[in-house]
Inverse folding.
């Protein structure tokens, strides 16, 4: 049945790109607070302990691995006058706003049970909003290059949201406990505004779905049968694992290798800002050459910079700042190009009345990304603990070399493996198993 009412044939205006990406900002605010503020607040300020709080949030990530594909599949199967994604967004925005308030502004006396319930609601409604919303970027434009522009719009607002959450304590001179309610209120307002902008400005893609509904298991099999998709996700997993090690150990590297803990905020902010500023460069390269070429250039560049980082020592702040900015630029490409390439695969695969699989395809990619960021906890941290690395205190040169190995060496090896995998992503993506169609 036909379930979309407008066809986007001309490129999006700047206002439409703004309206599309804006909703990412409140999601990024919540994501940044979840990583940087909330664990310490519940563990220390509320006295729950690092072990319990850590276990709750690891369980939350595992919960996401289940709910992401489920919500993606359900949104794929949704048929309504508003299309497949907007009904979920209408449910997700108020749910996410309320859940963010409950998690970031707990009442006095909140304990473990409260954290379990509030975090569970947060993880659930984050997925209910994010997966259908992000899936629209895979479907709404028939223009190959514009899919990169749409992905870069989301990536840019992601940095805006993260920077806002990062700077609130310093700008308003608040404690973390007082900062979290401010972020929660901003999330609720920005998410509502973002939904209004999206609903008013973004068209629906007019298409007809002729294939019957399928179960989640069958749909996953259909998604995984695509060789371009399997190869793309494999490369993405490897790159994200490398990025997780570098990002996850950045604070330790700055503190113990550079001996400049006071510069953590500055260097991390520079990394985030650079990732947004260089997005137009990668989009331009992908248009002139190809998305595959742009991503490969990013992988190689980051590998060279990480090798240089291994020789940065105590007091080399300027060199570290330059290298951090370049790494941030590469992180931006790692976010945009795989998403844009996925959009090419999904768009072509849904032609001719074939089943909608964009939500599930993106959800599996999200699950892979979340699992990848467990790598520092599962690989680097146990080894650092084994060699006696001190998070607060002096470390010997061998201990620092272990840190450098996981911060630079292992990510370089992973990226070299990823470079090979990326080169294997087919540039010709079949519209059906019998009818190939080349994407240029």
């Amino acid at each position: 049945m036909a379930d979309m009412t407008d066809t986007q044939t001309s490129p999006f205006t700047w206002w439409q790109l703004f309206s599309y990406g804006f909703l990412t900002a409140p999601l990024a605010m919540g994501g940044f607070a979840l990583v940087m503020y909330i664990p310490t607040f519940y563990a220390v300020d509320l006295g729950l302990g690092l072990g319990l709080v850590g276990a709750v949030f690891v369980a939350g990530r595992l919960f996401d691995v289940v709910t992401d594909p489920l919500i993606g599949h359900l949104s794929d199967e949704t048929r309504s006058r508003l299309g497949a994604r907007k009904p979920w967004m209408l449910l997700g925005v108020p749910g996410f706003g309320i859940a963010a308030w409950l998690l970031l502004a707990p009442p006095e006396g909140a304990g473990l049970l409260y954290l379990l319930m509030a975090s569970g609601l947060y993880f659930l409604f984050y997925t209910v909003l994010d997966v259908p919303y992000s899936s629209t970027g895979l479907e709404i434009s028939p223009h190959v290059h514009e899919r990169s522009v749409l992905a870069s719009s989301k990536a840019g607002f992601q940095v805006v949201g993260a920077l806002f959450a990062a700077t609130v304590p310093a700008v308003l001179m608040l404690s973390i406990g007082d900062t979290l309610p401010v972020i929660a209120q901003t999330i609720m307002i920005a998410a509502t505004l973002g939904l209004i902008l999206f609903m008013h400005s973004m068209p629906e893609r007019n298409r007809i779905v002729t294939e019957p509904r399928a179960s989640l298991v069958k749909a996953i099999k259909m998604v995984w049968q695509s060789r371009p998709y399997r190869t793309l996700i494999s490369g993405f997993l490897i790159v994200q694992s490398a990025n997780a090690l570098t990002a996850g150990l950045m604070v330790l590297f700055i503190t113990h290798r550079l001996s400049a803990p006071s510069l953590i905020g500055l260097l991390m902010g520079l990394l985030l800002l650079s990732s947004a500023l260089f997005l137009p460069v990668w989009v331009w390269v992908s248009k002139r050459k190809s998305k595959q070429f742009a991503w490969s250039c990013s992988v190689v560049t980051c590998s060279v910079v990480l090798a240089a980082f291994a020789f940065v020592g105590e007091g080399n702040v300027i060199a570290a700042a330059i290298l951090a900015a370049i790494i941030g630029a590469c992180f931006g490409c790692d976010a945009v190009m795989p998403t844009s390439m996925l959009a090419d695969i999904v768009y072509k695969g849904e032609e001719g009345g074939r089943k909608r699989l964009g939500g599930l395809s993106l959800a599996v990619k999200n699950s892979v990304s979340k699992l990848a960021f467990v790598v520092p906890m599962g690989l680097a941290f146990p080894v650092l603990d084994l060699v006696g690395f001190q998070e607060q205190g002096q470390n010997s040169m061998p201990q620092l070399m272990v840190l450098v190995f996981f911060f630079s060496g292992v990510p370089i090896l992973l990226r070299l493996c990823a470079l090979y995998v990326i080169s294997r992503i087919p540039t010709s993506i079949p519209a059906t198993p019998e009818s190939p169609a080349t994407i240029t």
Notes: Residues 317-349 form the longest helix (33 residues). Residues 240 and 369 are 6 Å apart (CA to CA). Strands lie at 428-430, 436-438.
